[in-house]
Amino acid sequence: MDIVTYCLSQDRNYHKTVEKYHVSYQQVYGWVKKYDTSGEDALRDGRGRTKAPEELTEADQQKLAMKKLEYENERLRAENAFLKKLQELQRRRR
């Protein structure tokens, strides 16, 4: 946002902005264009954002539910193996 603001305050002098902030001309131009089109929200980084449950399709919801069940199943297997090992160790002490 600082770079876009600076560029706009310099009457869209992209070259001056590039020299000051050491970024590429294409980046500055793209950011200013996004800002002009959609405002400040367009400059926010959306990478890695998880979708809200209501944004998921039915197939995506099923895949997510399946992954959760697989994770829970694996956790329960590990817990079960741990408890068996613990019981074995306790039996050996007696």
Automatic annotation (TrEMBL):
Entry keyword Coiled coil: yes
Protein name: Helix-turn-helix domain-containing protein
Keywords: Coiled coil
Coiled-coil positions: 59-86
Taxonomic lineage of the native organism: Bacteria, Bacillati, Bacillota, Bacilli, Bacillales
Annotated Gene3D superfamilies: Winged helix-like DNA-binding domain superfamily/Winged helix DNA-binding domain
Residue ranges constituting the Insertion element IS150 protein InsJ-like helix-turn-helix domain according to the UniProt record: 3-49
InterPro entries with a match to the protein in the record: Homeodomain-like_sf, InsJ-like_HTH, IS150/IS1296_orfA-like, WH-like_DNA-bd_sf
One Pfam family from the record: HTH_28
Similarity annotation: Belongs to the IS150/IS1296 orfA family.
